[in-house]
């Protein structure tokens, strides 16, 4: 007799609802760029009756989008790079080196998780102005790294502490210093958590609107989140063009997420189960 396997219908239905809540607007956005305005109003969620490729072609032919994408890519690249370097070094120190007051210093970094950038927008603007970083990409990158360090240090430290202590003991016997152990042992074993933190930082940086709006004044420095507002003002009622523009600009973040998703679950389960 085979035991009847109980199917968790409730779980499946809940997951399908969550997936539909995310995927339906995304597919409607992608398909909306292939529709005429009339069809977009009458059939916003269905497949196009006639596939119109001209709106996507016009977005790609517009030279400004490549400058916007380039600026967004530079900001995201340096935000991810600096967050990973500073975050891993700091977390490695907290996980392997015990010094007086390290718990207070660790908690000080975690306090940054409690305050979003919008809560400190005025003092942040004044500090960026005093440092002479207004209207520069570094004025966007540095605050993003600072506000992302608390979350990244929490994940990195938990992941590092779960690595076998015998690795460090064996390295010490072989005369390995902290720097060599960090570079040759810790980093190669931390690919899942590096990918996890990298994806979160990249997506947050790619979609950041408030901080570039606060810092940047020159159009040549704008990322895509500011560029789309100009595009929205230029083609206010042509929603098919705007949806095509949105689809093109969010594609890099989605592609990077899909590329790194196999590491995300492993990194989260290995690095975020305890604080």
Q: What's this, in brief?
A:
With 275 residues, the chain is mostly helical. It has 13 helices and no strands.
Would you kindly provide a written description of the structure presented here, covering whatever features stand out?
The protein is mostly helical and 275 residues long. It folds into 2 domains: 16-51, no CATH class; 64-270, MetI-like (MetI-like fold, Orthogonal Bundle), CATH 1.10.3720. The chain is built from 13 helices and no strands. It has helices spanning 9-32, 37-42, 54-61, 63-96, 102-111, 121-130, 138-161, 165-173, 178-189, 191-206, 210-215, 224-234, 239-271.
Unreliable runs: none
Number of strands: 0
The sequence of SSEs as H and E is: HHHHHHHHHHHHH
Q: What structural class do helix, strand and pairing data support?
A: mainly alpha
> What would the principal axes of the Cα set say about the shape?
globular
- The N- and C-terminal alpha carbons lie at a distance of 46 Å
Number of helices: 13
Main sheet attributes: strand count, strand direction, barrel closure: none
Subcellular location: Cell membrane
Membrane topology: Multi-pass membrane protein
Domain ABC transmembrane type-1: 69-260
Transmembrane segments: 12-34, 73-94, 106-126, 138-160, 181-206, 242-260
């Amino acid at each position: 007799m085979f035991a009847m396997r109980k199917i968790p219908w409730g779980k499946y239905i809940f997951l399908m609802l969550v997936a539909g809540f995310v995927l339906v607007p995304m597919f409607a956005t992608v398909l909306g760029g292939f529709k005429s305005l009339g069809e977009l109003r009458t059939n916003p969620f269905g497949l196009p009756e006639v596939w119109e490729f001209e709106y996507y072609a016009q977005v790609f032919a517009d030279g400004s989008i490549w400058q916007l994408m380039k600026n967004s890519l530079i900001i995201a690249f340096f935000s991810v790079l600096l967050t990973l370097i500073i975050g891993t070094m700091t977390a490695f120190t907290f996980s392997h080196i015990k010094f007086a007051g390290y718990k207070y210093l660790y908690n000080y970094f975690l306090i940054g998780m409690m305050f979003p950038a919008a809560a400190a927008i005025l003092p942040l603007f004044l500090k960026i102005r005093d440092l002479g970083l207004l209207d520069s990409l570094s004025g966007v990158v540095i605050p993003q790294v600072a506000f992302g360090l608390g979350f990244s240090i929490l994940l990195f430290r938990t992941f590092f502490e779960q690595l076998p202590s015998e690795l460090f003991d064996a390295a010490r016997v072989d005369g390995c210093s902290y720097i060599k152990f960090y570079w040759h042992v810790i980093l190669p074993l931390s690919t899942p958590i590096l990918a996890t933190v990298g994806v979160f930082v990249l997506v947050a940086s790619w979609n950041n609107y408030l901080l570039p709006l606060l810092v940047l004044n020159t159009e040549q420095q704008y990322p895509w989140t500011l560029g789309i507002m100009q595009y929205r003002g230029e083609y206010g009622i042509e929603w098919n063009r705007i949806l095509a523009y949105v689809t093109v600009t969010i594609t890099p973040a989605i592609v990077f997420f899909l590329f790194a998703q196999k590491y995300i679950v492993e990194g989260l389960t290995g690095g975020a189960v305890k604080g």
